[in-house]
Amino acid sequence: MIITLKKNAPADEVAKLTKAFEEKGLQVNEIKGQDFNVFGLVGDTSHLYERDILANIWVENVQRVSAPYKLANRMFHPEDTIVDVAGIKVGGNEKIVVIGGPCSVEGRDQICRIAQEVSECGADMLRGGAYKPRTSPYAFQGLGYEGILELAEAREKTGLPVVSELMSADKIDEFEANVDLVQIGARNMQNFDLLKAVGHMSKPVLLKRGMSATIEEWIMSAEYIMANGNPNVIMCERGIRTYEKYTRNTMDLAVIPIIKERTHLPIIIDPSHATGDYRLIEPLSLAAVAAGADGLIIEVHDHPSAAWSDGAQSLKPEKFQTLIEKARKVAHAIGREM
Ligand code: PEP
Ligand code: MN
């Protein structure tokens, strides 16, 4: 970290500041300039926050040299993390995974039927929301625990591991017992108490990017989970909010190489929530695979027009199957299996 002090900073203030950093276990290298004094801080600065240092009136500028995250940082963990989801490996050079299923679990018959369909199409895991974060309090809120149990039943019938969104820490026992991959939704990406709570879970976590989150904020959320003891985090890009109205969100594909360069965590793409439009799911899935994604999570429904949520961005099983066949060719072209 590089700290530039104001031109006329008094010597006793400079000494006080030096002492304060040294007491935090940091080495302070001072460069005396003609106009400014500059401190180079050497050591673990992850517990320092730039804005706190700027509160000192003699500090002109603070600049980070290293990223504020440690556990997620590729620099300290060069090899890829491979997350095991009930036997399905995600990340590294493992097979690219496909997660398919409805936005919401709508009942036992619906989830078991769609589970069977996505399984026949070649999906590796089943998704289905039982606790739904809806914009309107009047919209369908999910079947709750009943939905979780029905999802678990669909797993028993098909053998597909299941993914579902956890919205509050008081449901952790339900998820620990019934869900294979715990999704933290975009709206909860910075619910720090929830992140700490899933950090104590034994199940892997699918961490969606917040709709207005910077990449660094998103990685810091992964860091929260990891710092609380759970190293099994899969990142999921689901589009961010921009000025563009032709799509529900704007799918940011640049995050794939960036997350892979900055962190060692796997990253998967959700083109359904990123676009909101079933017509865009296939081309963007192919692009995501080409760009190096470790997986795709796609909403699939056999009657999209009757879906209880997100029908407009849901693929019918036939289209889902064609997508997988095409994406497999792209995967092979870049030397990966799918
Ligand atoms: C979902 O996956 O059903 C969902 C609500 O996604 P997001 O949190 O990305 O909006
Ligand atoms: Mn949805």
Helix and strand arrangement:
Blueprint: E1 2-5, H1 11-23, E2 27-32, E3 37-42, H2 50-53, E4 59-63, E5 83-85, E6 88-90, E7 97-101, H3 108-121, E8 125-127, H4 145-158, E9 162-165, H5 172-178, E10 181-184, H6 192-199, E11 205-208, H7 215-227, E12 233-237, H8 255-262, E13 267-269, H9 271-275, H10 278-290, E14 295-299, H11 317-333
Parallel strand pairs: 7-8, 7-14, 8-9, 9-10, 10-11, 11-12, 12-13, 13-14
Antiparallel strand pairs: 1-3, 1-4, 2-3, 5-6
Helix pairs in contact: 3-4, 3-11, 6-7, 10-11
The chain binds phosphoenolpyruvate and manganese (II) ion.
Provide an overview of this structure.
With 338 residues, the protein is α/β, with parallel strands linked by helices. It folds into two domains: 2-63, Phospho-2-dehydro-3-deoxyheptonate aldolase, domain 1 (Alpha-Beta Plaits, 2-Layer Sandwich), CATH 3.30.70.1140; 83-333, TIM Barrel. The chain is built from eleven helices and 14 strands. It has helices at residues 11-23, 50-53, 108-121, 145-158, 172-178, 192-199, 215-227, 255-262, 271-275, 278-290, 317-333, and strands at 2-5, 27-32, 37-42, 59-63, 83-85, 88-90, 97-101, 125-127, 162-165, 181-184, 205-208, 233-237, 267-269, 295-299. It has an eight-stranded parallel β-barrel with strand order 7-8-9-10-11-12-13-14, surrounded by five helices. A four-stranded antiparallel beta sheet has the order 2-3-1-4. Helix 3 (108-121) packs parallel to helix 4 (145-158) and helix 3 packs parallel to helix 11. The radius of gyration is 23 Å and the shape is elongated. Residues 103, 273, 299, 309-310 line the site of manganese (II) ion.
